[in-house]
């Protein structure tokens, strides 16, 4: 028998005799190289898209940062009140789909001032109100949402022209006990949304001057280059959120208008579970942004989770390695990822990604470009 085995046996006996079983067990944990995770509690992380962000455009970035903060606070308020993660991610994504809350101040006679809260349609991000156009001049929106429990409930939608908030449609599909399907698209999805009382708008609602200009500029380019990623100051085509609530339940939500000047009928990674969206309470939740074709072929979102499960990597190690490998094969983009302990990862291989996180423990919205 090796000498050190005998020594360890004697030390263990001494621990039991002098310090008791409890302290002996704690000593065993410290000396076994087992990871001791810090639980940060309920946490929300978001992204507003990755892409090319150059210095001369930073003067217009405050709008994006303010919108990211509003998105974080919308989800944070739900987590702070003890709400669940699926409601938190839906609320955060709805802000980036265009439902921005602002305080309006109106000055009346005699210097009286009234302040009231209202909703405005904010088209900053490529989702909902701010969605890009297809090559045929249409807006085709898509979304997905997932909960990290063992049966992996999920809802997804695509090819939407009239649903104001696609993420709410995805959530409705997930929670509807009478709906046997995960994924609906096109007119069937829109009819379902209307039947369930979701807000329906005319397709012209999604028209914005900024996105139409991008569409026309793309058409003027060489035919081989008309399909383009958003360039600064506009992010690539997705927004997303991941949250863990007080019960340790992880939820992920992702929404997009897709790729600028994509072919009509093209479906990206966003509504495809495991590609652009994933949630697993035992590993992490992931939402992606970038070149959807690469995210589909490589199953990017679930790959982060799989590296944690099978390679024992931490959430930041797994997310970093997945995005690094994505770059090696020519894919551009990034992910946000969150584990059950509230540990956040936000890697990207482009020059920037609109992103941020907030924890119930301190309530501070941290936002970055």
UniProtKB/TrEMBL annotation:
The record marks 237-238 as: Cleavage. GO terms for biological process: proteolysis. It is an enzyme of class 3 (hydrolase). It comes from the Eukaryota. It catalyses: Cleavage of a beta-linked Asp residue from the N-terminus of a polypeptide. Transmembrane segments: none annotated. The active site is at residue 238. GO terms for molecular function: beta-aspartyl-peptidase activity; hydrolase activity, acting on carbon-nitrogen (but not peptide) bonds, in linear amides. Keywords: Autocatalytic cleavage, Hydrolase, Protease. This is beta-aspartyl-peptidase.
């Amino acid at each position: 028998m090796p000498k050190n085995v005998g020594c360890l046996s004697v030390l263990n006996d001494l621990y039991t005799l002098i310090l008791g079983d409890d302290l002996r067990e704690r000593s065993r944990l410290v000396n076994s190289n087992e990871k001791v995770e810090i639980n940060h509690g309920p946490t929300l992380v978001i992204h507003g898209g990755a892409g090319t962000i150059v210095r001369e455009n930073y003067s217009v970035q405050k709008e994006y940062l303010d919108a990211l903060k509003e998105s974080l606070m919308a989800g944070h308020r739900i987590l702070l009140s003890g709400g669940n993660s699926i409601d938190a991610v839906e609320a955060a994504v709805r802000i980036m789909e265009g439902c921005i809350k602002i305080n309006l101040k109106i000055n009346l006679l005699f210097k009286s001032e009234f302040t009231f809260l209202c909703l405005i349609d904010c088209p900053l991000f490529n989702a909902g109100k701010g969605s890009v156009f297809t090559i045929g001049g249409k807006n085709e929106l898509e979304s997905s949402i997932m909960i990290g429990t063992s049966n992996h409930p999920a809802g997804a939608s695509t090819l939407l022209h009239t649903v104001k908030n696609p993420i709410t449609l995805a959530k409705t599909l997930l929670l509807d006990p009478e709906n046997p399907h995960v994924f609906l698209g096109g007119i069937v999805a829109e009819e379902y949304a209307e039947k369930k009382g979701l807000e329906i708008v005319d397709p012209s609602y999604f028209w914005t001057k900024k996105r139409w200009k991008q569409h026309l500029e793309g058409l003027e380019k060489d035919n081989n280059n008309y399909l383009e990623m958003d360039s600064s100051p506009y992010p690539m085509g997705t927004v997303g959120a991941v949250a863990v609530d007080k019960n340790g339940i992880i939820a992920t939500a992702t929404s997009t208008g897709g790729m600028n000047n994509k072919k009509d009928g093209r479906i990206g990674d966003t509504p495809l579970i495991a590609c652009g969206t994933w949630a697993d309470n035992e590993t992490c939740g992931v939402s992606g942004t970038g070149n959807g074709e690469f995210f589909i072929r490589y199953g990017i979102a679930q790959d982060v989770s799989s590296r944690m499960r099978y390679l024992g990597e931490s959430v930041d190690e797994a997310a970093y390695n997945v995005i690094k490998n994505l770059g090696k094969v020519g894919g551009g983009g990034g992910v946000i990822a969150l584990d059950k302990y509230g540990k956040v990862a936000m890697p990207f291989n482009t020059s920037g990604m609109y992103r941020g996180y907030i924890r119930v423990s301190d309530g501070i919205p941290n936002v970055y470009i």
